[in-house]
Amino acid sequence: MSNKGSFNYVPKVDTNELMATSNAGIAAIRAGLDEKRAFTKEAKLSCDACRKQETSASPLQACSRCRSVRYCSRACQTAHFKTAHKRACASFEEPPLCRAFNTKVVLPGCSYPEHPVFACGVSEGMGAWISAGGTIDCRLATLPGGIKGRPEKESATVGQMMAMIPGLTPGKYLSMTVLVQNRTPGKGRPMVVVGMGIVAFASPKGTPIFMEGKEPGERSTTVDYPHLGRVLGLAKVSVQLTHFNGKAIKNPATCPAVKDVAMSAVLLNLGDYAMFTIEFRAGGPRVALDFEALELLAHVIVPAIPYDPHAVGSYAQLLPRAAARDEVCEIQARIDQDAVDAWYRDYKIKGEEAYIASHYGEARANMIGSGNQALSEMMKAMMSNMRI
Asked: What residue segments make up the domains of the chain, in order of their start?
């Protein structure tokens, strides 16, 4: 008989096998990360016109408007702009080159690029791209805030501990990555993108399904669209500015471009771009995976307003005022359901491990499988101990 405070549940985990698998997995993942850095750097650093490689003595220069191409000289830039880049730059054909949002590089051993583009929208010289932002196992998050939102073990409630066990508790939160860039005409017009104003709208089919999971006190939006009827704007749980011009933002309050921390309002001059991670409550009786939620979405709207350095008030006030004056640039990015289906097809047909292997590599798939099993057993042991 166990004493109070001791474990009365013995995890059925072969620790030697687990350690061997984990160590091998970590080594393989680290090697993959090194290869990824080298592969990504090599893929970027060549002139888009003549393919000349960059050197430390002759660094390449980016197109100041789109930052999606690099040139070794003004002659190459001029020639390429006339023959190819003029249309691509204006039409937002490609997002800016950014390691945190790389839509082109397919790493060795994988079949897909790291960051799929599920939606792209353009309005008045402002553009937005939408990508997946969740975990690699495709489950909706059970706790908001991802890993940062997980409580410390000592302070976690029973419900929070249950939510951390993979697959035990149905997820609720859909995470998206949103990249927004200013390519306004001429010399460019300074614009402020308001992260807290970003809304993901359900399709007519998805609206009643998302409503099944509505929680008490949830603040959601409904809008009447011509020919569509009333559709639901999913309730936001969190908005976080993660990158500005490719650099990670750890503390938005220290970033000069951030004009309102609470509203995640970011000033974008010509060529500037910002990345946000946004979580929406999307889970319900019929929605537990990322693609189950994405398949029920119609579009995402990203608002931006002209920057007025003399404006008074928070952007919670300035955005509605701009809307009343019809000054809001609304970037509408329609969800490309074909792209969603293509990205998640391996999961639907072959299962979770096959999906992780084809998208993130065999080493990651093996480690995730072992890690999920170990975590599940340890959390069950902790729960059992709490009941003594």
From this structure: 115-350
